[in-house]
Amino acid sequence: MITQDKLLISIFGGVFLGIGIGLIMRAGAALDGIEVLALYTLKKTSFTITEIILGINILIFSIAALKFGPETALYSILTYFAATRSIDYVVEGLQAYTGVTIISGKSEVIKYQLVNNLGRGITVYKGERGFLPGKFEISSECDIIFTVITRLELRKLKNLVYEVDANAFVIANTIKEASGGIIKRRQHH
């Protein structure tokens, strides 16, 4: 036995459990009825597989708390929370997609850099920038750039943008699902 610390056991046990479940799910198989139920429910809702698995397990652990006590149930929920994060990385991959919106006065240079140096397709919206507190009446037309990158490319994109315009406004959002365009297609269950 390495440790008897329940917190460490919950976290690392969850990580290893999640890696195992993720590998099995990535191969198209399931461990038990919960994964099968999650895969079935996935087609009917907008929740991810891991959110469904976590929700079902929280229900089960809440009922188990009546017999085993709330402390044991909370450690079990923590274990499955760690497991769901690991499942996400294994099933979705480290290259989960991120949608990035860039607003800058130097959008022409940024567009060129994104397409030619980062190798990404972009979408450009016509917009207005400004409207600041105390300066609401001051605004100017601008291009709002949107692109989809992998999570691993985010730092490279930010460096590229901030080299061109240190005051650029960059918004990054995790994308749960994307298809079409030049995005690589992922294997679905």
Observed structural traits:
Alpha-Beta Plaits; alpha+beta; 189 residues
* Percent helix: 40-55%
Name the poorly predicted regions. Answer: 185-189
What is the global morphology?
A: elongated
Main structural class: alpha+beta
Number of helices: 6
Distance between the termini: 37 Å
SSE string: HHHHEHEEHE
Q: What is the typical, i.e. mean, pLDDT?
A: 84
* Rg over alpha carbons: 22 Å
Spatial strand arrangement across the major sheet = 2-3-1-4
Strand content: 15-25%
Largest sheet: 4 strands, antiparallel
Structural domain count: 2
Number of strand elements = 4
Walk me through what this model shows.
This protein is of the alpha+beta class and 189 residues long. The chain folds into two domains: 6-91, no CATH class; 97-174, Alpha-Beta Plaits (2-Layer Sandwich). The protein is 50% helix and 21% strand. Helix 1 (6-26) packs parallel to helix 4 (70-91), helix 3 runs antiparallel to helix 4 and helix 5 (107-116) packs antiparallel against helix 6. The longest helix is centred in the middle third of the chain and has 22 residues, at 70-91.
